[in-house]
Amino acid sequence: MSAFSVAIFTFVGLFIFVPIIGGLIRVFGLYAIVQEGTRHVYVLFGNVVGILEEPGLHLLWLELGWRALLVNWMGQRHVLDMRMDQEYLRSAPVNSEEGAPMGIGVWYEMFISDPIAYLFKNADPRGSLRANVSNSTVRCLSNMPLGEMLETRHKMSRTVRAEVSPKSAEWGYMLGSVYIRKVHFRDAGMIRQIEEKVVNRLRQVTSAIRQDGANQVSVITSTAEREAAVEFARAAAMRPTIVGAALNEIARDPEVAEVLFELLETENLLK
Q1: Taking Cα atoms as reference points, which of 251, 57, 86, 93 lies closest to residue 178?
Q2: Does a structural domain hold residue 229?
Q3: Confidence bin at 112 (pLDDT 50/70/90)
Q4: How far is residue 185's CA from residue 29's CA, in Å, rounded to a whole number?
Q5: Same domain, 71 and 164
Q6: Of 16, 49, 81, at which residue does a domain stop?
Q7: Tens of pLDDT along 88-103?
Q8: CA pair distance 77, 33, nearest whole angstrom
């Protein structure tokens, strides 16, 4: 047999016959493969006959006994995702104590804690949890003061979680973190009014700052002008005294005084 023929038979055996044989063995209930983060629940004749929790290869004959041959044909196998999941509810409608229509966005985490309760106690546990979170948000957070609603999101988150957790545990869900992510106004007209008030207030503040600056400049200017006028008046008042003292000093020498007066007279004539 040539190397090419061996390669062909190996390819056919590995990629065609082996998966077919493995699938038939799995259908007959000889083994099951549990992926990481999943759990297999086997139900036969309305009863839970086995739960595979650990990831890896499991021999169903050892886990379920004689039921392994029947469970894949006459029973059911539920594969549950046990990993933590999260969801975000947008704009749950509530009203503040002042009557303002508000919307609250709630983000929460959940994971399956009890597979049997998850499968058999509620037909739609995920939808029921979503509705319960929404209803609890509306029920617990309505009629709160608007200021408290906008500032105490951590307290509001704990309130919603305490309200929802007991009921979700009955359905096999464990509620993780709950966080009030967004609080906003729902009325478009109110939003426009708030925007207009904020813009007007900013204009008033800007105008007040500009006017205050102009007033301070005026005060500084007037103070400087007043001080300058005082100094000029003081200099004007001192000028005769200084000039008189200088003339008295010159008058002590008649020759110097005569020459000075001649120069002054000549200067006046030239003008």
Answers
A1: 86
A2: no
A3: confident
A4: 57
A5: no
A6: 81
A7: 988 888 888 888 888 8
A8: 12
Residue 138 has pLDDT above 80, yes or no: yes
Whether the CB-CB separation of 159 and 140 falls below 8 Å is answered with: yes
Q: What is the pTM of this model?
A: 0.60
pLDDT digits (tens, 9 = 90+) for 54-74: 888 777 777 777 777 777 778
With helix as H, strand as E and coil as C, how does the chain read? CCHHHHHHHHHHHHHHHHHHHHHHHHHCCCEEEECCCEEEEEEECCEEEEEECCCEEEEHHHHHHHHHHHHHHHEEEEEEECCCEEEEEEEEEEECCCCCEEEEEEEEEEEECCHHHHHHCCCCHHHHHHHHHHHHHHHHHCCCCHHHHHHCHHHHHHHHHHHHHHHHHHCCEEEEEEEEEEEEECCHHHHHHHHHHHHHHHHHHHHHHHHHHHHHHHHHHHHHHHHHHHHHHHHHHHHHHHHHHHHHHHHCCHHHHHHHHHHHHHHHHHC
Asked if residue 122 and residue 155 are part of one domain, the reply reads yes
